[in-house]
Amino acid sequence: MKTKGAILRNPGEKWQIEEFELGDPVAGEVQVKLVSSGLCHSDHHLRTGDSPAPMPVLGGHEGAGVVTKVGPGVTNLKEGDHVVTAFIPACGVCDPCSRGDQNFCDEGARLLTGLSIADDTHRAHTTDGQGLTQMCLLGTFAPYITVNQASLVKIEEDIPLQAAALLGCGVATGWGSAVEIGGTHAGDIVVVVGVGGVGINSVQGAAAAGARIVAAVDPVPFKRQMAEKMGATHTFESMEEALPVLGEISWGKMANTTILTVGEIDGSMIQPALSLTGKGGQVIVTGMGNFSSMDAQMNLFELTLLQKRVQGAIFGGASPRTQVPTLLNEYRAGKLNLSDLVTNTYRLDQINEAYDDMLEGNNIRGMIVYGDDDY
């Protein structure tokens, strides 16, 4: 079928809205009519060149919609099902999936290749026949996607699809960084550095887990205000500003966990985060940096003698097929706020304006909402 999407031809260029050809599902695949797509900073890393991917790229990896076609061999989804995209596929049979570590699924090695899980070919092509790399095997900056069933999680129909899109990346990654891999317990002290579409959910998760202090760090006043609404007990403009105050209010204990959820991680951020972290504590690195960056500064004396940890996290350290239903239950229980996460909505042809707003700090999360004229 012919449809349209936001395509990046080369790093450094703007997203272009182009018509392209989307193939029908083959074995193990389904086609989905999307309602919305979140605008994540990870897609901007394609534009800056920080994330390597074969060009051209069809962007987007955070979406929700309704299954419209089902390929051969698909048994867990049918036409009409409501689904959320998961930016990490979960095949269910590889070694990591068998251990319950779906966020390590072996099929994740394909995320930036553009080659489908089913047959190592492209499911999307430009009008002149060139293969399109679907970001994270998804490409949600288009009203229709054809993807492997491993990249979708079925959800109940009582959940608003527009808001549900955020579960596939920002909400699950942020919440999990605090609750799953972060292991926040009642009475803990948690610092979240960077209050965007991921960090705001680390704030929510830490608060829901019973943290005594949830300190949010962000230079943008609007984001600090939103963090307070979502459960932050204290807010700061910078890690340097937070350091003496956190020492005072924690009686010198400092944080059990400091979570780095800034849009672009730099190696110079690790040591300030470690300084905010107490003995035996951990720094969770959730934000993405340049794929070629090898430089991280930290005091190794402090790292050893205070037994601190620096821990990476993908999908919040959780498994998509368990985390998404868990978060839906938190939403139903009133512990997860989805309605206030989206600051502004955009049409597909406003995508460059939307990313300008993200970079200027105007959004917690921007979202593309598809209209009748997009289908």
UniProtKB/TrEMBL annotation:
Keywords: Metal-binding, NAD, Oxidoreductase, Zinc. It catalyses: a secondary alcohol + NAD(+) = a ketone + NADH + H(+); a primary alcohol + NAD(+) = an aldehyde + NADH + H(+). This is alcohol dehydrogenase. Residues 12-370 form the Enoyl reductase (ER) domain. Its cofactor is Zn(2+). SUPFAM superfamilies: GroES-like (SSF50129), NAD(P)-binding Rossmann-fold domains (SSF51735). Its EC number is 1.1.1.1. InterPro entries: ADH-like_C, ADH-like_N, ADH_Zn_actinomycetes, ADH_Zn_CS, ER, GroES-like_sf, NAD(P)-bd_dom_sf. PANTHER family: ALCOHOL DEHYDROGENASE (PTHR43880), ALCOHOL DEHYDROGENASE CLASS-3 (PTHR43880:SF12). The keyword Oxidoreductase applies. Belongs to the zinc-containing alcohol dehydrogenase family. It comes from Gordonia tangerina. It is an enzyme of class 1 (oxidoreductase). GO terms for molecular function: oxidoreductase activity.
